[in-house]
Design goal:
Largest sheet: 8 strands, mixed
Low-confidence stretches: 1-17, 224-264, 673-683
Helix content: 25-40%
Radius of gyration: 24 Å
CATH topology of one domain: Rossmann fold
Bound molecules: 5'-O-[(S)-ethoxy(hydroxy)phosphoryl]adenosine
Structural class: alpha/beta
Shape: globular
Length: about 700
């Protein structure tokens, strides 16, 4: 093995060269000349304006939306509670649809859809508007009212966008559950959100197979999502809802059991026919084509208060219980629209492809709300990037003339592994801008992305943000910012991001610290659904008076941010956020497990991989068969995305005297087998460890 930095192909790790990265890439002149913010001076002017008049700046951005009544106060802020555009009234879909359908964009493509089997559909703004009006009328007819939550568990098909926007149109907050989550995980989320209606499909296509979405909904509603039923072993395990087996069933399906009194049940399940496979049918089930297909396309959008909830979305925190992050209408839409416009430099002739599933926040903000508020054309693909071949993405870009492509580092690293011949065989010259999101992008992947996908002509926007922030916070403005491979560069105008010590004082150049946002911003989360105290403590309680993101970072001498990863017990596997506790709870719910501890270890492809340390119950044989069984159990409990890469058995887990599992030690053990190599990596790891300790010290 050589001493120098290793490439991904050689098995080197992602962050190795970040500390020594010195390459810089100014925006190409031609790109800058045609862009919205085309120079460093224009960027500086925007920042100055935002800093000089924070509220005025955001009011100007909000003014780009369609309001039924203007706000009377831009911001009411008593940390941690923000209200933006107070007194203003709007309907999110008026900005995303009605105003375009009433303009020259009526016959412009809003959605370009390609299914995994190769079927395609195009919906213009006029058509999408009509579909959403029909769905809004259908939801109303099914008894959904403003304020009712609707759970959406759909594949990446146009109906997913229609369903979201129909909910928004009638003021019923949606809570989307990623189709890769298991019935058990779906059940938890439906219960926590108190959804009244579930929208799903008979199935979705994934690598030629059918994902049995409707079956999972059926299981989720009767609470038999796991093979071993609502196991009593779950009792007392943090994160499993309640200890009572009576909670296993979501009320509704089995007739509103009195044990669930006070929790409004799921009344209806609206089912889109996608795959045509046979599905079980019950009295609550209704076909989408029967009710939406026949509904009127006339629907006048009512207006809602700016702070009316638009959606909640579950994400992982440091405990076993996922958090329902709540976003409201005016502020969220302002953030999504503003960032879509400036970070992606959106133009009317763009074909914008964000590869995220709508089950994640990236899909909310950059498949649906942000680009549609800007009247953009959005591409949507249902399936896997390697189905039927590893060229699928490049075929799609060539076929539809994609101009802006936004994906995750884990995908980029997979493309690198699959070989340059796949992109090389396709005409990717339509691309003008590339984006990255979800985890730190290692410079090697950044350079490959730039050269092999962007033909060395497209700027790259590495965008840092979170489910909680609603929209991009730190990213280049592509016509203005000189980029550095591996850095998300600087905070967007209007965003007061910084790196600080535990006591809140700013860190010096290149000093590792906590990433915080010091002033409120419109698209910030408003609460954790049902747990405002946890919201206040998690985000505003760690570092006095400012929003703490849970990430470690440093700023270099140019003020560029380098995100170092989470300092808490959240792990990022292939761009998906998971809490170690969540996976531990799933493992501990297995009858053969006495105790489990889960850590992340660096992984060349996924960023982090899950390693589980398991102490089996007395008399249980710890062997490969058990490891396989446990991995399958986690898949049933949460979904394949949480399946441990490795299960290691131990007689006991290392603990502090107060009984806390010593994760640091386990992380070292788990990483021991990977070539971590040079000292820069170790330094980086060391800072993270120090931060993690500082973060945990108050517990
Ligand atoms: C990580 C996804 C480095 C980070 C939008 C954050 C990133 C978490 C980046 C949020 C990036 C996201 N560089 N790290 N460009 N983008 N992250 O809520 O750790 O699924 O806290 O939102 O992903 O993940 P979430």
């Amino acid at each position: 093995m050589s001493d120098g930095p290793k490439t991904v192909a050689e098995g080197g790790h992602a962050i190795e060269s970040v500390l020594t990265e010195t390459r810089t890439f100014p925006p190409p002149a031609a790109f800058a000349a045609a862009s919205l913010v085309g120079s460093e001076a224009a960027y500086a002017a925007m920042v100055e304006k935002a800093e000089g008049d924070h509220e005025g700046f955001w009011a100007e951005q909000a003014g780009q939306l369609e309001w039924a009544a203007k706000w009377t106060r831009t911001l009411e802020w008593t940390a941690p509670d923000a209200k933006w555009f107070v007194g203003g009234r709007l309907n999110a879909t008026a900005s995303c649809l009605d105003r375009h359908a009433a303009s020259w964009r009526k016959n412009k493509a809003a959605l370009l859809f390609e299914g995994e089997p190769g079927d395609t559909r195009v919906l213009t703004y006029g058509q999408l508007h009509r579909e959403v009006c029909k769905a809004a009328n259908a939801l109303g007819a099914l008894g959904v009212r403003a304020g009712d939550f609707v759970a959406i568990y759909l594949p990446m098909i146009p109906e997913a966008v229609v369903a979201m926007l129909a909910c928004a149109r009638i003021g019923a907050p949606h809570t989307i559950v990623f189709g890769g989550f298991s019935a058990e995980a779906l059940s938890d989320r439906i219960k926590d959100s108190r959804a009244k209606l579930v929208i799903t499909a008979d199935g979705g296509w994934r690598r030629g197979a059918i994902v049995p979405l409707k079956d999972n909904v059926d299981k989720a509603l009767v609470g038999t999502g796991s093979a071993d039923g609502g196991s009593p072993a779950n009792a007392g395990v943090p994160g499993r809802a309640g200890g009572s087996p009576a909670n296993a069933g979501v009320p509704g399906r089995d007739g509103g059991s009195p044990a669930n009194a006070g929790v409004p049940g799921v009344e209806r399940v609206l089912v889109v026919k996608r795959t045509g496979n046979a599905v079980a049918w019950g009295p609550k089930d209704v076909w989408w084509h029967d009710v939406v297909g026949t509904a009127s396309a006339r629907h006048v959008a009512p207006s809602f208060d700016s702070e009316h909830p638009l959606f909640s979305l579950y994400t992982s925190g440091t405990t076993g219980k996922p958090k329902g992050i709540l976003h409201t209408t005016g502020g969220y839409l302002t953030g999504a629209a503003y960032t879509s416009k400036y970070v992606f430099d959106l133009r009317d002739d763009d074909v914008f492809w964000c590869t995220a599933d709508i089950g994640w926040v990236t899909g909310h903000s950059y498949v649906v709300y942000g680009p549609l508020a800007n009247g953009a054309t959005v591409l949507m693909y249902e399936g896997a990037p390697d189905a039927p071949t590893k060229s699928r993405f490049w075929e799609i870009i060539e076929r539809w003339g994609v101009t802006v492509f936004y994906t995750a580092p884990t995908a980029i690293r997979a493309f690198m592994r699959w070989g340059d011949e796949h992109p090389a065989a396709h005409d990717l010259s339509s691309l003008r801008l590339l984006g990255s999101v979800g985890e730190p992008i290692n410079p090697e992947a950044w350079m490959w992305y730039r050269d092999k996908i962007g033909g060395a002509r497209c700027p790259i926007v590495d965008t840092w943000w979170q489910t909680e922030t609603g929209a991009i916070m730190i990213a280049p403005l592509p016509g203005a910012t000189t980029t550095k491979p591996g850095s998300a560069t600087r905070a967007l105008p209007g965003i007061a991001a910084d790196v600080v010590k535990k006591d809140g004082t700013p860190c010096g150049p290149n000093e590792g610290g906590f990433l915080v946002i010091k002033r409120p911003w419109p698209s910030m989360l408003r609460t954790i659904f049902g747990d405002h105290e946890r919201f206040a403590k998690t985000y505003f309680g760690e570092i006095e008076g400012v929003y703490f993101a849970g990430d470690g970072a440093r700023k270099d001498a140019d003020g560029y941010f380098w995100i170092m990863g989470r300092v808490d017990d959240v792990i990022n596997v292939a761009g998906h956020r998971l809490s170690t506790m969540e996976v531990e709870s799933a493992l501990a719910s297995h009858p053969k497990v006495a105790e489990a501890a889960v850590v992340g270890r660096p992984d060349d492809l996924k960023g982090q991989a899950i390693v589980a340390f398991v102490t089996p119950r007395a008399g249980v044989t710890a062997d490969d068969a058990l490891a396989t069984e446990l991995r399958a159990h986690v898949t049933t409990q949460i979904g394949a995305l949480a399946r441990p890469e490795e299960v290691r058995f131990a007689d006991a887990l290392p603990k502090t005297r107060s009984g806390k599992i010593m994760r640091r030690l386990l992380r070292e053990v788990a990483s021991g087998s990977t070539a971590r190599g040079d000292t820069t990596t170790l330094e980086d790891q060391g800072v993270l460890e120090t931060l993690a300790q500082a973060y945990a010290s108050d517990d």
